[in-house]
Structures are given as C-alpha cells and as structure tokens.
C-alpha cells in the first residue's frame, strides 16, 4: 500500500488505496484532478460547513453566510454574487481563515467555479474594442502589461481558444481579476465589468 506521505490530501490517498483494492483503472492523473473546497459560516473555520467538489451557482442553498474556507485540493474561482457574477478571486490549495479581510470584500462568497487541470497549449486573442474590433494580438504566454508590450491601452473583448486564464485590471497582475475559460467574450461591459480595463493576463498553470 502506498504511503499517505505521497499525497497532500487524505481523501485522494483513501481513493487511491481503495482503487487499488478494487483493481479498477483509475489513474494517478484522475486523482490529481480531484477538486475539493470547504466553506464555513464563520471565521477560522467555525460554524456549519459545506463541502463542494464542482461548480456551485448559489451557495445560499447550503449556507446563509460564509466567512472562511479551506481549499483541500485543486483551484477554484470564488464570486461575491450568485451565478458567477461580481468580484472574483482565485483560490489555490490552502486555508483562508478570514478571506473577507484578505480580499477587502464587504460581502461573502456566493458562488464558486472549479478550475479544471489543464496541460495543453495556451492561446488567446485580445481586442482593443468590443465585438472583436480594433487592435488584435494573439497571446500564448503571460503578459504583465499590455501597454508596454503591445502599445494597447484597453482590452474590451477576447477569444480564449486554449487554456484557462486570469485577467487583471492593473499591470503586473494586480487589482480586480476575471477568470476566462475557453470561449468568446464579445463585451466585458455586458458581463458586468463596465468601466473596468484589463491591463495584464496570466495563464492558470497551478497544479494546486
């Protein structure tokens, strides 16, 4: 039997050994793709809790409030409004005993989205204006300042062709952020980001 020291998450270790005993075909990669986050009503992991292993569009069905959380494995994007709207924050494996103070949020987490593990190429086209108009540049790696690299002072739409990305309102990956999955995003304004410019972009490559 493999030692628990090989795993950062007890549930993954238990699933792996259970799988061996059943002689099934679950691979190590399947186990590494395991995602798990636990939300708590109060700070410091107190009060009622809700464990989530996938997307959740409205946490009010499970908790009336959320003031702390623990990411057991994987990476998640959390939102301060239902249906993946409002302010967003990227969470990797770790403990967040008082995330509201850390993020500067006045409200708690209301929805969350699981970020799948991805190991392929990354490719995204960014556009100066809405509906894929204006200057266009294709990116395959991180960019800490689109003004310095492309002489582009705004990004209002994009087409994510490969990979998962984070976009930031300030250079050097600072300020508010937005999670981008593969797909077409014709208008950031229509997505609720009116008046917000995105000035840096980063690939999500965390093993978490």
From TrEMBL:
Species in which this protein is naturally found: Oryzias latipes
Q: Which UniProt keywords apply?
A: Eye lens protein, Repeat
Which Pfam family would be a valid example here?
A: Crystall
Give me any GO biological process, just one. lens development in camera-type eye
This chain belongs to the protein called Beta/gamma crystallin 'Greek key' domain-containing protein
Role description: Crystallins are the dominant structural components of the vertebrate eye lens.
Quote the InterPro entries the UniProt record gives.
Answer: Beta/Gamma-Crystallin, Beta/gamma_crystallin, G_crystallin-like
Q: Does the keyword Repeat apply?
A: yes
Which residue intervals define the domain Beta/gamma crystallin 'Greek key' in the entry? Answer: 35-73, 74-116, 163-200
Q: Record's family? A: Belongs to the beta/gamma-crystallin family.
* GO molecular function terms attached to this record: structural constituent of eye lens
UniProt xrefs under PANTHER family: BETA/GAMMA CRYSTALLIN, CRYSTALLIN, GAMMA M1-RELATED
């Amino acid at each position: 039997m493999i030692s628990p020291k090989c795993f950062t998450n007890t549930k993954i270790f238990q699933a792996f050994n259970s799988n061996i005993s059943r002689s099934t075909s679950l691979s190590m990669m399947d186990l590494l793709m395991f995602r798990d986050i636990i939300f708590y009503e109060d700070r410091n992991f107190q009060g009622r809790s809700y464990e989530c292993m996938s997307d959740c569009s409205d946490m009010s069905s499970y908790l009336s409030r959320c003031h702390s959380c623990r990411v057991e494995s994987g990476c998640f994007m959390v939102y301060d409004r239902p249906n993946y709207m409002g302010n967003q924050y990227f969470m990797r494996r770790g403990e967040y005993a008082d995330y509201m103070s850390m993020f500067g949020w006045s409200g708690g987490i209301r929805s969350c989205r699981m970020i799948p593990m991805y190991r392929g190429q990354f490719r995204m086209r960014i556009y100066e204006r809405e509906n894929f108009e204006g200057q266009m540049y294709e990116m395959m790696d991180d960019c800490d300042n689109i003004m310095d690299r492309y002489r582009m002072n705004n990004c209002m739409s994009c087409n994510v062709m490969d990979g998962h990305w984070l976009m930031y309102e300030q250079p050097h990956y600072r300020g508010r952020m937005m999670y981008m999955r593969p797909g077409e995003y014709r208008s950031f304004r229509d997505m609720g980001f009116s008046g917000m410019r995105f000035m840096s972009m980063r690939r999500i490559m965390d093993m978490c």
